[in-house]
Amino acid sequence: MVPLRRLLRSMRRRVPLWVVLPVLAAGTLEVLLHAASWSVPVPAAEQDAAFFPPGCREPDLAQARANAAFVMLARNSERREAKVTVRSIERQFNAWYGYPIVFLNDEEWDPAFVSELNETAGGKAVFEVIPRDVWSFPDWVDPEAARRSIKAQGETGLQHAGQEGYHHMCRFYSGKFYQLPALQKYKWYWRLEPDVEFLCAVTYDPFVEMERRGKVYGFTIALWELGDSCPSLFREAADWMDARGVRPTALWRATVSASWAPWPLRRWLMSLLAHRDARGDAWSLCHYWSNFEIADMDFFRSREYQAFFDYLDRKGGFYFERWGDAAVHSIAVAMYADPAQVHHFEDIGYRHDHLYQCPANAPGEAAQLPGSEVLARGERDPKWTAEEPGGIGCRCECDRSKGTRNHPEYCLDRLKRPNTRKRRWITWPLRLVWP
Ligand SMILES: *[C@@H]1O[C@H](CO)[C@@H](O)[C@H](O)[C@H]1NC(C)=O
């Protein structure tokens, strides 16, 4: 410490104020300009309005269906949980629309699962076994090294990181599922997980509406990724963009947190940290929670996405880290989709684990249609929770004592910014301490 203090003192004597001040001013200006270069453009108009006015509609049963299916990956041991999900989606949506459900398993199906879920599903149900070659280590990964790494990751306590199957699942959902023969014939999918509840009636066809409005990706919940699951993912993605000359979209800007360090530090030091690009700017870790997705499989089947996935796959991070399909999908959407192609289903009530999104109900009979015979068909006793001015939901049943309503809205605000004219700079930090 003594030599450092002596050095500073001698510098102070040698470097006059008229040198220090301009350097500081230039540094500050550079930092501000850099932050401004990452600003998210404000769209000319709101780009992601709700598809319909608040509340319920009479389901339009005569309307042609989209080329779409539900997809649920489940284990034989998750029969009860799978039934919770299928009962819920049947009651809240599929009783009217009758879309098929494709069940996927990496093992042979238990006949009891097949017969019970086939009965629970209102539309057609198919039960597929995932081929080994899309649920195993690729040739360029040494299985022994990968297993050692998976074991070590598990020992750090990172959620699911010690389970080999979980790594295969993340890779499968990132780059493989939409190529399965059972799904090849469909364009749209709605992803389901065991033990999920839909908390509002969905009285329109989201597939048809997404198609009509040129959307490719729909989500309900946005939140932070666990940083330890993917220390090198963002850097690999950013390097890919640099190498391919992919220009950052407004969504990409929204997902990045510009560094506040001055140029030399940013470029040479910050860039060495996890979740940073080569220029030292950071990923916010914000992503869409992919256990709910309504999306266009052709987006993932595109040549760009496939090349991006293959590149990531070669890096080994699905096994030597625990890259999740949620992060991979979100980064790819930020990279290749126009913000107007992404839709937040704020009117769909959804619960998975302890996180949920559940809107207040739109007030009045015109919004809740208590006399509707078609809506009565979903086996419902009409006991929806509070109607509130400004509410948007259709017959939502929200138990707000039960968990976190969305995640403190930081990530949702951030990922929706490219689509909205609202700017809430001031309220973000406040929300963190006082949500
Ligand atoms: C599901 O049930 C239907 C109607 O009972 C039957 O025709 C079909 O073969 C069953 N599917 C499977 C996969 O068991």
TrEMBL record:
The active site is at 293 (nucleophile). Keywords: Glycosyltransferase, Transferase. It comes from Monosporascus ibericus. Signal peptide: none annotated. GO terms for biological process: cell wall mannoprotein biosynthetic process; protein N-linked glycosylation. Belongs to the glycosyltransferase 15 family. The keyword Acetylation does not apply. The keyword Iron-sulfur does not apply. This is Glycolipid 2-alpha-mannosyltransferase. GO terms for cellular component: Golgi apparatus; membrane. PANTHER family: ALPHA-1,2 MANNOSYLTRANSFERASE KTR1, MANNOSYLTRANSFERASE KTR5-RELATED. It comes from the Eukaryota. The lineage of its organism: Eukaryota, Fungi, Dikarya, Ascomycota, Pezizomycotina. One of its GO terms (molecular function) is alpha-1,2-mannosyltransferase activity.
